[in-house]
Amino acid sequence: MKDILQVLEDRRAEARLGGGQKRIEAQHGKGKLTARERIELLLDEDSFEEFDMFVAHRCTDFGMEKQRPYGDGVITGWGTVNGRQVYVFSQDFTVFGGSLSETHAQKICKIMDMAMQNGAPVIGINDSGGARIQEGVASLAGYAEVFQRNIMASGVVPQISVIMGPCAGGAVYSPAMTDFIFMVKDSSYMFVTGPDVVKTVTNEVVTAEELGGASTHTKKSSVADGAFENDVEAMAEVRRLIDLLPLNNREKPPVRPFFDEPGRVEPSLDTLIPENANSPYDMKELILKVADEADFYEIQEDFAKNIITGFIRLEGQTVGVVANQPMVLAGCLDIDSSRKAARFVRFCDAFEIPILTFVDVPGFLPGTGQEYGGVIKHGAKLLFAYGEATVPKVTVITRKAYGGAYDVMASKHLRGDFNYAWPTAEIAVMGAKGATEIIHRADLGDAEKIAGHTKDYEDRFANPFVAAERGFIDEVIQPRSTRKRVSRAFASLRGKKLTNPWKKHDNIPL
Amino acid sequence: MFKKILIANRGEIACRVMKTARKMGIKTVAIYSDADRHALHVKMADEAVHIGPAPANQSYIVIDKVMDAIRQTGAEAVHPGYGFLSENPKFAQALEAEGVAFIGPPVGAIEAMGDKITSKKLAQEAGVSTVPGYMGLIEDAEEAVKISNEVGYPVMIKASAGGGGKGMRIAWNDAEAREGFQSSKNEAANSFGDDRIFIEKFVTQPRHIEIQVLADTHGNAVYLHERECSIQRRNQKVVEEAPSPFLDEATRKAMGEQAVALAQAVDYASAGTVEFIVDGERNFYFLEMNTRLQVEHPVTELITGVDLVEQMIRVAAGEKLPMAQSDLKIHGWAIENRLYAEDPYRGFLPSIGRLTRYRPPEEHADAGSAVRNDTGVFEGGEISMYYDPMIAKLCTWAPTRTQAIEEMRVALDSFEVEGIGHNLPFLSAVMDHPKFTAGEMTTAFIEEEYPDGFDGVTLHTVDLRRIAAACAAMNRVAEIRRARVSGRLDNHERHVGEKWNVALQDVDFDAVVSADHDGATVMFDDGEALRVSGDWTPGDTLAKMVVDGQPLVLKVGKISGGFRIRSRGADLKVHVRTPRQAELAKLMPVKLAPDTSKLLLCPMPGLIVKVDVEVGQEVQEGQPLCTVEAMKMENILRAEKKSVVAKINASAGDSLAVDDVIMEFE
């Protein structure tokens, strides 16, 4: 009996060593942790329960039968993050470069199926050279099996991808279909075709980092939602995100004890809006001062900065925030910001996370670049996302809410539950100057008359009261009491039930 | 007594004057410019009158506008504060002409003391010690030697037209005097076309010590002892204290009596300050007399218990001084630290913008200690570029100097200012500087101790351990809270362990945290145990802890896996990790910050007005490279060293953010 126990321990020890000490050291040499070390950092201490430790590939071509390491290049299992269940797979670069074989894929599929069945998030840690070429189509089939599960799990359990090494070719499409992609700066990259192929086909010379590094994907392509300094920070920040997300689409977002008075008054918000209507201010100050403990988990911080998206807590419970940022492009909506915010709103709606919207939007960005790029359909994505969302929606207009962009930004007309405005709000079709020049075209030559008309228009529309008279604004609130009002609004919406008509699925303008 | 007074000033001093006026039951009138529409002094006043655009020369110092405000509100007297119109005899005359009382000295005194030469002459006549020297023209080197001997070495040989160190020599003996005279003369002739030379005593180890005087219109005058203001940066006072750690009783008395004599010689009536320069042997020499309330007056108030503003108002109303010289004792020790909106990490460049957070330490006063903060700003207010960058004067008082310094350290650590750059870390550094704590400073203190500017404080292991212990205990609270999120798997909750590793500055400590209901004991791996208590909860930006019986106040910010801690002038990233996390963290590559020595970075958000160089051009040290306009102020950026411009990334009209790369050098 003792021997058998020893055999088990020996086998485990062998499995834990992955591709061997030398490769582990090589991995460390690149500033990367091993697949198991990453899991250790991601999960609560001693909470990891492994599946399929002894799975090995079944390939017999190209001499592969001589090398059948345990685990087959991916560690899978479940564990807890602050006591809440999650499923995880972590590709092991020390074993066949983390390449995906049929059995490697099967291991991933197994825990994804479990996650779906038991209602817990899936966290995928990607560090893989790509397909196991020796296995040919079996490997491709493996990818597709994973893809199909990503698709089925979408909107059922949160799926988070962390790219912590190479992720190229077909492999990118699994993370691409998950809810969030995070990368590690300087040690990860993602692309469909690598620099060599790019050079052959298009003659472009580009490094892997330039083509698909963290900077590219967080700033230019928006493929990634965030980037972290190193593996340790990445795992800590994924834990932080998990703390904010419900485990599945049947649960309410998590609540944790909080130490911040929901009625906290912030007198400094009364002076947030500058005297000059064209001066910018930092919307993040409002977000931080409204949030519990000034804690904000920003999503896509470096992309389309004219809109801010991310998670805060109010009374300990997760709330998704969407806010125009007047500091960038005057906070206007454009293709990028609409896409960014639309995806975020849909994530929140899928997982029952209430949405708080702060509005200061002068309209949509004009220009051929935008029109040729299809701003009509991209802008419609955000409109669609807000309109279909059935979660509690609270909106605060701080300053400008002009034109169609007013409608888009979680207006009352899109089933907003609470639509508040600060006294500084201006809800109108457009700015006073533009409006006057259209209404009083005949007087355009007379600067004095135009100035008078502009003043009239401002007096009439550059305030929240016209909208409030019609009930489009539920209440005009003091900036200083925003946290209190918003917290109470969400509290009152805890029992909200709203369902959309039955449909197979909608047809959002993709 | 007056029923209503107008305060012809802004900022903290306007608020300061209003406090006393309110205490005395006098109504107050504020004046304000466009930039101060929402300023604190406007909110505090009973009435406020708008007097014009933001620049002071179109508002606060336009006598006619102030006079209009007085007429409009019927104020009976005017307190001018400091700066602006406070030492302008024309303003005092204008008030006199309208029959409005000036809460300050008579016009004659302002005029007499306003001129450097006249004031020095008057001082000499009143028996005040002045810097010995020869003001007449000196013919040749031999005469220079003769005069130098009369004055006594060391002497300063100066060009009449001199400035900026040019045509200036210090001589310690005859040979140097002879040589110095010649070279000064030549340099002066070349630089200024005026080779007149004079000689005066060179004051070694100079300290700036000033005497506060108070006089009434009935011929009474007293001195309220001294203030030492030696810690200055480019003639701008930074730290002041009362009394001076340097004076002995005899010197104090001599200086005080001379100051009173001078005040009486010019029929002074109000609060005034006689400034002296004091050398290493406690010889003191008259510099000038300030005929107004000084910025640093609170330290005198704290050690004498006299409200100087109240006395100024009473004197202006014709009352007699209620105290005699013998009533004025020095009680304890007071220190003032001036909080400037200047970024110490960027060469003390003025910083403007919105105060997103402004939480001064709580004011208090009891037998053992006092904290006082004179301020003119508030959270959510705007720091504009139009006025003085000083935003607050933090003062502490305690029975002894050592205690007052300790009070100040804690008060500085408790002072939260965000949104703008400010000198709090620098002030903390000064409060911990051994020369300051020993009281051994001269006016060259900052220049000598921080020759290359200020780049933060490196803490000693003892301090780091105390911070590490506090962070370990705080982290435990944060982790336990994290582990209490809803949706946990019953019976499989996370257990928060006791063993932690705290990494900060360039060290890390292994520690065991044992918590109980009063706090925690943090045991380091070498066996040292520190007891930590405090009521910090996650999200608090200020942790008022007690570590090993001593208070420790930390400003707490968020970073991944730990805290950003600011304390005692240091700005630390503190990572608190489990032993396993720490082990793995050690495998992480150290990423070096990009080398910016060959880049010209934009020091502030602003607009490029002009680029003075082109690609390939060789530039010399100090040569202008480009001009950045920020808030209507033009800042010329200059080459730090000789180099060649490799690339220019910005052109006129571009608006840039802080740290944007303007140009690159080879």
From TrEMBL, chain A:
GO cellular component: acetyl-CoA carboxylase complex
InterPro entries xref list: AccD/PCCB (IPR051047), AcCoA_carboxyl_beta (IPR034733), Acetyl_CoA_COase_Trfase_b_su (IPR000438), ClpP/crotonase-like_dom_sf (IPR029045), COA_CT_C (IPR011763), COA_CT_N (IPR011762)
GO MF term set: acetyl-CoA carboxylase activity; propionyl-CoA carboxylase activity; transferase activity
Domain CoA carboxyltransferase C-terminal per the UniProt entry, residue ranges: 264-504
Entry keyword set: Ligase, Transferase
Residues of the CoA carboxyltransferase N-terminal domain: 1-257
GO terms of biological process kind: carbon fixation; fatty acid biosynthetic process
PROSITE patterns: COA_CT_CTER (PS50989), COA_CT_NTER (PS50980)
Family that this chain belongs to: Belongs to the AccD/PCCB family.
UniProt-recorded name of the protein: Propionyl-CoA carboxylase beta chain
Source organism of the structure: Primorskyibacter sedentarius
UniProtKB/TrEMBL annotation, chain B:
GO molecular-function terms, A-Z: ATP binding; metal ion binding; propionyl-CoA carboxylase activity
Residue ranges of domain ATP-grasp in the record: 120-317
Limits of the Lipoyl-binding domain: 590-666
Isomerase found in the keyword field: no
Domain Biotin carboxylation, residue spans: 1-451
Pathway it works in: Metabolic intermediate metabolism; propanoyl-CoA degradation; succinyl-CoA from propanoyl-CoA: step 1/3
Keywords of this entry: ATP-binding, Biotin, Ligase, Lipid degradation, Lipid metabolism, Magnesium, Manganese, Metal-binding, Nucleotide-binding
Cofactor(s) needed by this chain: biotin
Entry-linked Gene3D superfamilies: 2.40.50.100, 3.30.700.30, ATP-grasp fold, B domain
Top-level taxonomic group: Bacteria
UniProt cross-references to PROSITE patterns, sorted A to Z: ATP_GRASP, BC, BIOTIN, BIOTINYL_LIPOYL, CPSASE_1, CPSASE_2
BP term (GO), one: lipid catabolic process
Pfam families: Biotin_carb_C (PF02785), Biotin_carb_N (PF00289), Biotin_lipoyl (PF00364), CPSase_L_D2 (PF02786), PCC_BT (PF18140)
The enzyme's E.C. designation: 6.4.1.3
Catalytic function, reaction form: propanoyl-CoA + hydrogencarbonate + ATP = (S)-methylmalonyl-CoA + ADP + phosphate + H(+)
UniProt-recorded name of the protein: propionyl-CoA carboxylase
Species: Primorskyibacter sedentarius
